[in-house]
Fold this sequence. Notes:
Elements: E1 25-30, E2 35-41, E3 44-50, E4 54-57, E5 60-72, E6 76-80, E7 83-87, E8 93-97, H1 101-112, E9 131-143, E10 146-157, E11 160-171, E12 177-178, E13 195-197, E14 200-204, E15 208-215, E16 220-227, E17 232-238, E18 244-247, H2 255-268, E19 277-280, E20 298-303
Parallel strand pairs: 5-20, 6-9
Antiparallel strand pairs: 1-2, 1-18, 2-3, 3-19, 4-5, 5-6, 5-7, 7-8, 9-10, 10-11, 11-12, 13-14, 14-15, 15-16, 16-17
Amino acid sequence: MRYPRLLLLIPLFGCSLPTPKPPVAEFLVADGSSTYWVRSGPGGINSRTSPLILTSADSRFYEVYVEEVTRSYEDAIFTHEPIYSRDLLTGRKKILYEDNKVTAWEKMYLSGNPKARLLDPDEDGSDDVSVAATGESDILGVAGPYVLYGRHITLEKSNFQQSDSSRGAIDIRSGESVPINSLVRDTAVLGAGGVREGNTVRWRHAGYDVVARYDTAQAETVVALRDLRGHEWPLGYVDSRLPRIFWLDQPRADARLRTALNNAFEDAREHDADEQFVFQKTRPSREHVRLAASHSPRRSTLHAQ
């Protein structure tokens, strides 16, 4: 299930001088659980929000998501959650991570119960089974082309329980695991020409900057739009120390990519109850806005046969 998040725009307080107009800009801001489509111009700033985990590598955009696979028997249930990437332009899916421990436990169960019958997806299994194995996957964040994940597996029997947890990182380009501490030294995690300055990362683009400052008091990162004269328009908080920025204006994203991004936004929002749009006018109000927590999205629940 997906959980929506809002990009909450933090206003500037007016003064006697004419309010500076925000620069013309269009870009995406992505953290570990949501993506924000930001458009800016003389009329103000608006942001469209989706619980889409988005990243880019080798000039291609990818959605990252978790699927649930369940195999039920009359006396046992086995569930695991592979992590996938999907190329937005081609639609091609690839498994980035899959824990094989649950599959191994299922094989052990079948070796001891060779007559066990795999239930059809529309059959209701028993609420009281002798074996329950679960593998949970959570996307913790995305840093450049790397996906950081957490996994937790549990095996429960009537008189026995076993569990294990770990974290890891995967290079979305190759699908290979990489040491998490090696990401600190990889400049690719900044992306889009970002420059690190202490707790601040600055991305300079076509006549404006996007700035991300880590707020130690909030334990979150505030993202701001800044023109070349130094005027800033704070956009809101994200829960990633290093959000990702993707430019859509210079060079202007073509119609095919825009359609693919729009479809991905809508697909990620298909289970949301309400539209999630925010708008900032040139005379902003005093509301303070920020982001709510979210979880790794599950695109669907699959019942394997």
